[in-house]
TrEMBL record:
It is found in: Cell membrane. SUPFAM superfamilies: MetI-like. Belongs to the binding-protein-dependent transport system permease family. CysTW subfamily. The chain crosses the membrane at residues 7-34, 73-94, 103-127, 147-164, 185-206, 237-262. InterPro entries: Bact_Polyamine_Transport, MetI-like, MetI-like_sf. This is ABC transporter permease. It is a multi-pass membrane protein. The keyword Transmembrane applies.
């Protein structure tokens, strides 16, 4: 049996430490959220129970946790849909060169390198100058799009750069209109990438703090609510909330991955049926 070199074990140990660094804090919060009723915010644990999870569903004096969750969920869905639609339209538009396309592209992705807090401040100032109300569904929505749209655009540009145009030509030869070609040929082919863009859009919005800090108005999103709780909550209820929101994020990711798997199986079955025909 061939012996593995020592460098393999060094790299494996380094990778293990890296994973521990990434997920250790999440694991620690998850463990501490199961403290007993008399438990505190640090180790050692004082009993094991679901007390703090039950406490989350009772009347809270620390803030509007579930209202913040509903707002983050609604905002995430709004950002997700907008990111997918605009990214697809931009990807289709940029397939052909047009005057100012390079300038427009760099303008669209510049927000990725600008500090998030400056984006939040700028959007808030614009709304104030225009006399518009700062609200999570308007100014908060706009500021988050400056974060999600560049990712969606970059993904769609990469997808369409390697898209085989012969599928579209075959559809047109069969008499399909431009809209029918997009609907029945292009969109089904790029559907897995659309799910990826949707996942990016939702998760980036759901977890975003800095770009929402000065644009959410009087009503907090969930990240802002959790940040506010860190200043006045001294019980493991905040850990229980962190555990539930983390599980929710993983559930969303799992749902998108399941959708990708189902879509892949469906495409494979259709391809198999077409081959038999």
């Amino acid at each position: 049996m061939e012996r593995r070199p020592r460098s393999f074990y060094v790299l494996a140990a380094f990778f293990g430490l890296f994973v521990l660094f990434l997920y250790g804090p999440i694991l620690t919060i998850g463990i501490l959220s199961f403290q007993g009723p008399q438990g505190g915010l640090t180790f050692p644990m004082n009993g094991v129970s679901l007390h703090w999870f039950r406490d989350l569903f009772e009347q809270q004096a620390v803030g509007d946790i579930w209202g913040a969750f509903r707002r983050s969920l609604a905002l995430g869905l709004m950002v997700m849909v907008t990111t997918v639609v605009v990214s697809v339209m931009a990807g289709l538009a940029f397939r052909k060169r047009f005057a100012g396309s390079a300038l427009l592209f760099y303008a669209a992705i510049t927000s990725l390198v600008i500090p998030s807090i400056l984006i939040s401040l700028g959007v808030g100032l614009i709304f104030n100058q225009l006399g518009l109300k700062i609200h999570w569904a308007t100014s908060g929505f706009g500021s988050q799009l400056t974060w999600t749209l560049p990712f969606g655009l970059l993904i769609m540009f990469a997808v369409f750069n390697r898209f085989d145009k012969s599928y579209e030509e075959a559809a047109r030869d069969q008499g399909a209109t431009s809209w029918q070609t997009i609907r029945h040929v292009v969109l089904p082919i790029i559907a897995p990438s659309l799910i990826g863009v949707a996942l990016f859009g939702f998760t980036l919005s759901y977890d975003e703090f800095a770009r929402t800090l000065l644009t959410a108005g009087s009503y907090n999103t969930l990240p802002l609510e959790i940040f506010g709780m860190t200043t006045n909550v001294t019980t493991p209820v905040i850990y229980a909330l962190g555990t539930l929101t983390t599980l929710f994020s993983f559930a969303i990711i799992a749902a998108f991955l399941l959708g990708l798997w189902i879509m892949g199986k469906r495409r494979a079955r259709l391809g198999s049926d077409a081959g038999k025909a």
